[in-house]
Design goal:
Layout: E1 2-7, H1 13-22, E2 24-29, E3 34-36, E4 41-43, H2 46-53, E5 58-59, H3 67-76, E6 80-84, H4 92-95, E7 102-106, E8 114-115, H5 118-124, E9 129-136, E10 146-153, H6 160-184, E11 199-200, H7 216-225, E12 232-236, E13 239-249, E14 260-262, E15 267-270, E16 276-283, E17 289-291, H8 292-298
Parallel strand pairs: 1-2, 1-6, 2-5, 6-7, 8-11
Antiparallel strand pairs: 3-4, 7-9, 9-10, 12-13, 13-16, 14-15, 15-16, 16-17
Helix pairs in contact: 1-6, 5-7
Length: 309
Amino acid sequence: MNIIFMGTPDFAVPSLKLVASNFNVMTVFSQPARPNGRGMKSKKSSVEIAARELNLNVVTPITLKKEDIFSEFNLLKPDMVVVVAYGLLLPEKYLKVPKYGCINGHASLLPRWRGAAPIQRAIEAGDNKTGTCIMLMDKGMDTGPIISSEIINIKKHDTSKIIHDKLSETTAKLLVQAIKNYEKGIVSLINQKLDGIKYANKIHKNEAEIDWELTSIEIFNKVRAFDPFPGTFTRYSNKIIKIIKTNLSDIVHNSEPGTIINTNQKIIIACGNKSALEIKLLQKPGKKMISANDFLNGTKINIGEKFGK
């Protein structure tokens, strides 16, 4: 199998490494280096870094719409194209080039959570399971028939980081098996269901501020979903406080959402629908992450004060 691999973030690295150890990866396509971090220095993608460590040829086009890029792709005449979190939609003409088509490793149980942020949106929605699907790509966004899939459970305190790491390894394993099945001619395609379709919109930083009008379970899920990126925060005394970890509280209250209702070695905040949330770990600007108890030892806060805008 002569393969073109297309991917960009950390999630795709295990897939690249496992595919490259089993098959001939002719070229790797990844998104170009972009400004990153406080200094906004140009940073190569995780896939590009891994590919160069493996001495693989790397191409980093800004777009796939230019004819010279397509010509370069077409000249390679790959048997198969493997796509994992590449970040650019493949024009339809690309899909017709490889002998066996283009297959995609997607971190959800399709058709639920098509799109850019399936792991985060699954946790944010309170899903108790997710998984990986390997699909044959068509011109739609994550709409192609399923080749194989594997389910994993989302535990109560699982964050996006935990699920990301599990599914990145699962995706790699399923992709290699799918390619081997293509070689043997034993692939069965299953069309996606027409019901249960959900779209996982890209995560934006402006979603990170906690809305205390939400119920405690909604906020609890959001904190887990946005860990590590973009993180969640609230405001207290005109300062931004990052909220790292929370737990559900069984306290029922009549306070306005955002009101601090307990400061006895723990911080409990009133949420919507009379629910409450305990803050376990938090972080002041420029400081280390600390427990709620340590925060209380260094910061005087009073019952009745409010978190939020």
